[in-house]
Please model this.
Amino acid sequence: METYVFEFPATKTLKQRAHVGVVGSGDLEVLIQPNNEGKVIVEVRTGTDGFGAVWKTVLERFFKENDTAMNVSINDFGATPGMVTFRLAQALEVSKRYD
Model:
């Protein structure tokens, strides 16, 4: 089990929290909540060791396009990068984020 923490700049605000996905084979759970820190703080807990660089690349790409201040908790059970991006986008949609 590994835990990674990443931070990215943010210029937008999140209106409400959201919870999507499940911790299950090939999937992951994403929880987001607003913060007032002007940045994205992501904590990833994963059972798949040795993929820190992949996580960093996937998250950098996503939050470059979606620079919304929030705390993100990701609980992973072997999700692919595509699933990670999907769940993050889904969480933003559920949160009803407005610029």
